[in-house]
Design brief:
By secondary structure, the chain is α+β, with helices and mostly antiparallel strands. The protein is built from 4 helices and 10 strands.
Length: 247
């Protein structure tokens, strides 16, 4: 089945200029509205302008993240966002063939925005919500951090020069925020850390207010608890970071 992407447009958003070392972005918007029964898909993410290494890395990383979230049909080896939308759509119709009276329309919404940029780092926050049946959909947030010096995405461990020291500090602040006594297990108030030991989340990102630690739903708490966030001001954690950030 061939699906048509509608609502494709670009809106230029100037957030800086090349002379100041900032990256210029435009917004890429995609929507799938082929038919009434087709899954609703809406994507709105920043697209870096230019042909340099960093711009290519940002655009490639965003594309790969979107493809990974939308790929549901193993028969389609999605290499583009359009193919990923086709995979998502095909996955829905394949399930509908098996359960014609029980399959509710699928939805996917993915939004991205630049949350931080300085001379060394750039961070994009990617929020997604997918509904593929069941009692409720699933929302998640991913932080994509980039080194402007190297022109590539960073692994979380690369954010720190003292990760263990940062982890210990983060646990102290987490306990304070969540009212967990220092002399009790981390799960004593209802959290679900594996092995009852504190660990950093999979998603850590730079924001204007500080470094955000984000545990998505189910990561350390129940779905009903929602995402768990902790934002640490840069003035308090600069000694742990691998580079200088603006405070």
């Amino acid at each position: 089945m061939k699906h048509v992407l509608s609502g494709l447009f670009f809106l230029t958003l100037i957030i800086g200029c090349q002379d100041s070392g900032h990256i210029t972005f435009e917004t890429l918007t995609l929507a799938n509205t082929k038919c009434k029964e087709c899954p609703e898909v809406f994507i709105e993410v920043p697209r870096a302008l230019g042909n340099n290494k960093l711009a290519k890395s940002i655009n490639r990383t965003l594309k790969e993240e979107i493809i990974s979230k939308l790929t549901f049909d193993d028969k389609i080896n999605a290499e583009t966002i359009k193919e990923a939308i086709d995979s998502f759509t095909n996955g829905y119709f394949e399930l509908k063939k098996i359960y014609p009276d029980e399959t509710i329309g699928w939805k996917a919404k993915i939004n991205g925005m630049v949350t931080y940029e300085d001379k060394e780092f750039l961070t994009i926050e990617l929020k997604s919500y997918l509904f593929t049946g069941g009692a409720h959909g699933y929302g998640s947030t991913n932080f994509l951090n980039f080194s402007k010096k190297r022109g590539q995405e960073m692994d979380d461990w690369e954010l720190f020069k003292d990760k263990e020291g940062f982890k210990q500090y983060a646990e102290t602040q987490f306990r304070l925020q969540q009212d967990i006594p220092a002399n009790t297990p981390i799960n004593s108030t209802g959290f679900m850390f594996e092995k009852d030991s504190f660990y950093l989340p999979e998603n850590i990102g730079f924001t204007e207010k500080g470094l955000k630690l984000l545990y998505n739903q189910y990561e350390v708490a129940s779905y009903a608890d929602g995402p768990i966030e902790l934002t640490l001001p840069y003035k308090d954690i600069q000694k742990f970071l691998s580079g200088n950030v603006k405070t």
